[in-house]
Design a protein that fits this description.
The chain has 369 residues and is α/β, with parallel strands linked by helices. It has 12 helices and 9 strands. The strands form 2 sheets. The protein has a 7-stranded mixed sheet with strand order 1-4-6-5-7-8-9. Strands 2-3 form a two-stranded parallel sheet. Helix 1 links the parallel strand 5 and strand 6. The protein is globular, with a radius of gyration of 21 Å.
Length: 369
């Protein structure tokens, strides 16, 4: 087990909002026996318990190997954690790959990557190219190709996988010509980029970024990321990380739609539907999985736990319907909400269980799949 190997220079100061710089080789012995820091994110310990400190200096990877010395090159499993593009860490206890590696005779690689505004702000310029989380991940895949043989892995047998938003980003690498040749297989677990809810246009990203910039004093009615891109980005680079976190949450809430991957951009030149129809994607072996009731996740994040009761006896049918419509407003884009409402209205209005089930089914189909 090798923990906390740096794969890029810390993306701080002038490197904030820029593509990652590969870590230069070093001499001597590096201590890869303990976790380093995870990437900056709003703290949600009940849902995303992060066992290490948070910092922008967070681009580190971990390698798990079976305890064997037979010299055979083993398949490599590269893992992308999920967390609605804003939270999560490779250091979370549930992502410890000791057992996965040992029982399946695999080399497992996990890592942290930039999230939220740091990983997805896209200004459509070279100064703020966007999809930086994907660029971070690409750098790890390149690191794997160059170095994994030293750890007993086969660089020609790499499987890229993730869960939830991690799965969506794995799908993004299938769609991107910039990731071609870096992996042989993909395993998507509960997440693709086939819906509008899980990605943005560059324009949407600029609007979000300008709103955050106004909150932290880097933009105003006379200059924003559209009119003075470089000046506003330079100002945002001077702000403390906590200011950008507070500004991002303030802009996004009550919706849970933060900064996301952007299409028609350098890393993702085509919409998923267009790329799929035209064959403009990496031809890799793919396994795509979903699970029953995976659309229940919005109910976990809301605070009225009566809605989680098995029989929902303590709320009225009207309350249940309104609560479900509020979840639609929180978790989907405005243009999708009417579709969700129509979907829910297919359920008998007095049947609270049916209304909840229809809501969960819609989220599973619209957000996850």
């Amino acid at each position: 087990m090798f923990i906390g190997i740096p794969y890029a220079n810390p993306p701080v100061g002038n490197l904030r909002f820029r593509k990652p710089e590969p870590k230069a080789p070093w001499s001597g012995v590096y201590d890869a026996t303990f976790p380093k820091t995870s990437c900056i994110q709003p703290q949600m310990p009940a849902v995303f318990p992060i066992p290490v400190d948070l910092s922008e200096d967070c681009l580190y990877l971990n390698v798990w190997t079976p305890s064997t010395t037979d010299g055979r090159k083993r398949p490599v499993f590269v893992w992308l954690f999920g967390g609605i593009y804003i939270a999560g860490s490779a250091y979370q206890d549930m992502y410890n790959a000791t057992v996965l590696s040992a029982f399946n005779d695999l080399i497992v690689v996990s890592f942290d990557y930039r999230q939220s505004i740091y990983g997805f702000l896209d200004t459509g310029t070279t100064e703020g190219p966007g999809n930086l989380a994907l660029w971070d991940q690409r750098l790890v895949l390149e690191w794997v190709r160059s170095n994994i043989a030293v750890f007993g892995g086969d660089p020609e047998t790499v499987t890229l996988s993730g869960v939830s938003s991690g799965s969506m980003m794995a799908h993004a690498h299938v769609m991107s010509p910039l990731s071609s040749g870096l992996f042989k297989r993909v395993f998507l677990m509960s997440g693709t980029l086939f819906t509008d809810t899980t990605s943005d246009s560059v324009t949407e990203s600029i609007v979000k970024g300008s709103a955050v910039a106004r909150i932290v004093g880097s933009a105003n009615s006379f200059q924003d990321l559209t009119t003075h891109t470089e000046r506003v980005l330079d100002c945002l680079r001077e702000r403390e990380a906590w200011q950008l976190d507070v500004g991002t949450v303030a802009v996004m809430l009550p919706k849970f739609l933060f900064f996301m991957p952007t299409f028609k951009s350098e890393y993702l030149p085509f919409l998923t539907s267009v790329a799929s129809a035209s064959g403009a994607f990496t031809p890799v072996s793919a396994l795509v999985s979903v699970v029953s009731n995976e659309g229940t996740f919005p109910f976990i994040y809301q605070t009225d736990y009566r809605l989680l009761d098995q029989d929902i006896k303590d709320v009225s049918p009207d309350y249940m319907r309104i609560a479900c419509e509020n979840l639609l407003n929180t978790w989907t884009k405005d243009k999708v909400v009417p579709l969700g409402v129509a979907y829910i209205e297919r359920a008998p209005p007095e049947d609270k269980l049916a209304v909840r089930e229809a809501t969960c089914d819609f989220f599973g189909r619209q957000v996850i799949r």
